[in-house]
Amino acid sequence: MLDSFLIPAGTVITAKGDSAPLELGALGSRVLLLTLRITQIVEQEALDLSVWGSADGAAWGDKPLIAYPQKFYAGEHPLLLDLTARPEVRFLRAHWEVNRWGRGSETPMFELELAVREVPKDVLERVRG
């Protein structure tokens, strides 16, 4: 059962970047719950966060698997990632871009985490059934 982080808790982001690749291993279910938790933020900034897939951990393609709507505030944001139609995906990686405007420092600052948890098959069957 996968229960891990693409972006570890307490990570501070101030510029565009990517997480380390996360190997999915042998999943019992191909549906994942992604939970973005933004714990600290300054005003007048935006975060764009997407999740990319790879078969080999090196080539990431030209489109993300899924992207969060742009975020401006602290909070918890769950999102389901269904990989059942993408059996070739063996690795995930987060990509983020940040923007800041207005007064004060021009450097954006987000403290966040991105948790990845496998949704068990029995839960999916109860929901679908």
Describe this structure in words.
- The strands form two sheets. Strands 2, 3, 5, 6 and 8 form a five-stranded antiparallel beta sheet that branches.
- This protein has a single domain (3-128), classed as Jelly Rolls.
- The longest helix is centred in the last third of the chain and has 8 residues, at 121-128.
- The protein is mainly beta and 129 residues long.
- 6% of the residues lie in helices and 50% in strands.
Taking all Cα atoms into account, the compactness measure Rg is: 16 Å
Query: What is the helix/strand order?
Result: EEEEEEEEEH
The CATH class: Mainly Beta
Total count of domains: 1
Q: Average pLDDT value?
A: 93
Biggest beta-sheet profile: 5 strands, antiparallel
Number of strands: 9
Helix content: under 10%
Q: At the third CATH level, what is the topology name? A: Jelly Rolls
What is the global morphology?
globular
Strand proportion = over 45%
